[in-house]
Each structure stands twice: as C-alpha cells, then as structure tokens.
Structure prediction request, 580 residues.
Amino acid sequence: MKSTPIQRLASLSVLVILLAASTTFAQSKAAKIDALVQQYVTNRQFNGSVLVAEKGQVIFKKGYGMANMEWNIPNAPDTKFRLGSITKQFTAMLIMQLVEKGKLKLAGKVTDYLPDYPKATGDKITIHHLLTHTSGIPNYTNFPKFFETLSRDPVTPESFTKKFDSMPLDFEPDTKFSYSNSGYFLLGVIIEKVTGKSYADVLTENILKPAQLANTGYDLFSPILPKRATGYEKKNGGYVNSPYLDMTIPYAAGSMYSTVEDLYRWDQALYTDKLLSASGKVTMYTPFLDSYAYGWGVRNAKIGQLKDSLLVIEHTGGINGFNTIISRLPKDKQLVVLLNNTGGAPLSDIRKNILRILYDQPIEAPKKPIADLLRQSVQSDPLEKTKQKLTAWKADKAYNASEEDVNVVGYELLRDGKTKEAITVFTLNAEAYPNSFNVYDSRGEAYKAMGNKAAAIQDYKKSVALNPRNTNGYAMLKELGESVEAPKEVVVAVDSATLASYVGTYQLAPAFSIAIILKADRLFGQATGQPMVELFPESKTKFFLKVVDAQVTFISNDKGEVEQLVLHQNGQDIPGKRMR
Prediction:
C-alpha cells in the first residue's frame, strides 16, 4: 500500500520532531557538562580541553584556561597536550600488530628479541609480562632522585635500558602487578629491534596515518609544534613552568602528544578492524592482575544509581605539567577525554561526573580545595585561628578538607624550605586524623628535615604502631639509628569453602560497594570505580591489603551466614551490608 503525500508529510514531521528533540537533549547534556567543568575551572582544579561523545557522536568539546599563560593563548579542542602514560595504549597496539604479523609472540621472551639483554631476567620475562606490568622489572621513574639526576639529558633507547636491565627483579614474573614504565620502555626497544625502524616512524606508519591522527605524534622539545600547550604546576597559590623533562626518557611509556579531537578519532578507529583484528582487540582488552589489560585498565564501574555496572576501558597519564585521561564505554560508545596542562587536576572525579550526566544521574558537586586558604592562614594567622578555620572548612560540605589535601599543603611548604610552617600543617592533620599512620609519617619527615631527631623518631614509631606495614617508617627509624625490624607479614591458610562463602557484593554507601571475588582459591576485592586488589588472610575472617593500609573483616549472623563486611581504613570502621 502506497503512502499518500499527506501521510509522507506527517511522517516527515514526526522525524523532524524526533531529531529536534534528540538535538535539544544533547544540547542539554552539553550545557550541563560545560557548567560542571566550569565549576572545576573556577576552583582552579582544571585548565585544559574536554571532549565528550555519546553513542559515537561528539556532543561537547571545548578548551578552558590558557595553553600558554605568558602569551595569553587559550586552550582549544585542537590544542596539543603531552599525554604521559596514555602513550602505553599506542605502544600496546603496535605490539599487537606485530604479533598479528608474526614478528612477535606474546609468550616470547625478552632475550628472543634482544639477545644482549641479561639472560638471568630476560629469559623469564615475556612480552605479555611487559604489557601487563607483571614483569618485576624495577620502575625507573621510582629510582632515587630520578627527576633531579636522570630526567634532563637525552638518551638513546638501548643505552637507557642499561639503567635497569641488570637490576634484580622486584618479584618473580606473573606473580604480582606493579606499574612499571621500564616495561613499556623496553617494549619500545623491542619494536625498534624487530622492525629496524625508530619507534616514532613505526607509530606514524602503523597507527597515526591509517587512523588519520594528524595532530598526534612523538613529542620532542626541539621541533616547532604549532598549538602545543605549555606545562605548568601550582606553587604557592600561583603557577610556575613545570620542570624540564627530556622526552627521550618517557619514550614508548609516555612521550606522545595529541588533542582531544584526535583522541576521538583514535576511539572511533578502535571500533573498526582498520588497525587490529577483532580477535586481536579481544586479547588486548582482556584484563589480568589489578584489572590491567594491554595498555588499558579494563573494569566494570557503577555510574550513579544505575542498577547495572558498565564496562569501562580507560587510562590516565601524568607527566611534568600535564595530566590526562581517556575513558571509553564500548557498550554505548561513550567517550570522555580530558587533557590538562596544570598538573594534578582531579580528572577521575570530573570524568565520573560527566558520565553521570551522560546517563542522567545526579552529579556530586565539586568541592572547593582548601590548599590555598590553608597555606595563607598558616603563614599569616595565629595557630588557634588556623585551627578554627580548618575545623570550619571540614564541617562545610562545600570544601574539601581531607587528610590528603591537608598533607599536600604540608609537603608544599616543606619543599619550599618552610619547615616550621610544614610542621604546623602536619600537626593540624594529626589532630584531625589521630588514627592515621600517614600523618605521623609525614610530620616525622618534617622533623627529620629540621634536625629534630627525637621528635622524628617519636612520630615514626607512632606511625608504625598504627600501621605495622609502613615499610618507609621502619626504614626511616633505621636511618635515625633505631634498632627496629619490620614485622613479617603472616598470611594464614583459609579453606576454599570459607573463602567461597565471602563472595558477593557489599554496599557501604548508596553509590559505593565492594565486590568480593574468588579466583583459584585467592580472594579479591573490587570497590566501585577502582581496580581489583587481592585480599590476604591474617585470620579466618580478617584480611589485609598490600596496596593500601586497609583491612576487611567478614561478619556472620547466628546461622553462620556471612551478612556483612567491615572496611577498616584511615581509622574508620565502615560496615557494608551484603546484597542478596
């Protein structure tokens, strides 16, 4: 049956209305995202560029603040930012392409491709271990005084591997996750060895050109790069240029630059088989220890009050003066890209709120940081006045007066040589959080810098008493001449049936739960929006974490049914009801 002109007109009118409604809805979300980011900008918590895509289509992109503060050049969607560790996903892609071409094997040993690499470690470390941060190779950016002594001079890839290739492993490969830039640096060296080309050339030929990423590349200091953002860091309430870093040092672990627009093109290319086969991408996105896959963190996350969690594939980056994040939700083809050039922005919080907007969930209003206010008060007000102000800020939900934020101010003052003021801040933190081991560890460091050995020893002893796993505290006490030994962690055996009885989801707050998972007779916990971590039993019902100072206790009812979990952290006991 053919439609009449009137019917066709009516159908067209309905289509126009639906399209208009869809556009208005997207505009509404765009306006909410803009208003949200502007709050962070007002709080001096973001300075950079943003892009958000919904169902594969860009609904918002905008720059905030300055790409160059000295020339008042604003950030824009086509401003080029250093990516830091987002580089790792590109390196992983190059590795997977070489695997598909038969030039590499994921089970291949380092010495298969680098014959001169020390055999003692190179014979047991595989490409897979390097990709998943399970190799045990020490992370070169954690070397003592790395940024002061090693980061400013140019290097060749092969010569720089000599800085870590003969060092003993931190652990046996495949037994633990430990983030290592050294592993991804080594992957770059292997790429060059296998292809006979530079990492930058392989990157351009195999990813940048096919995906049409014209504003992405390997960042070096000397070439003229139009629209390149300058990196800044906060200091004493203002900004300073970030310390110089020679970009041959981050290399395949963190030396790329890009724009939010190009990272959208990258995201779109990943939905095709243009760069890698579908099966190759399945391998690349399969998470291993700590939810880390090949160059990506892969996990399920709760968004607001949504009943079901959603798969999130993402990675963050941080490099002198820059921090970055790219988050992909493949089920709905959602994308959030945040590139910041003032360092230390709370990008995970911003991303979390943007996702809430995309899924029509209420946001958590950004809290105003107290760092500038506290720093000013410590240096100008009497101590009692500062105490009163800090108490008021902690009670006011509009401010973020967390232990961590107060501690940051203390360390800023300590780095500036204002040791007395730093001790004042650390003391305020200790009074506010008396059950936290970290506040005493921090103040002990300040007393040590001042030369007050007795006070430093007292604080470090208090710190290790609160947290016997504070290895830094024991190290400092030894350095101060105390005869102390860190207690050995005692892990007891718990039978499989008991471990299985703990499996489930425990709700500690309306939007915060911990999922307990059993894998090969080992218990793991995954909190909302966080990676999976192993829980180690110190008794049949109490478990401890190694990645942070926290413990978990499982509580049963009179019938022997596990009905509650209690999280012990930062001096608090937070109960969580088991969800049925």
Summary: The chain has a mean pLDDT of 89. Residues 368-480 form a domain with the Serine Threonine Protein Phosphatase 5, Tetratricopeptide repeat fold (CATH 1.25.40.10). Residues 147 and 388 are 38 Å apart (CA to CA). The longest strand covers residues 310-319.
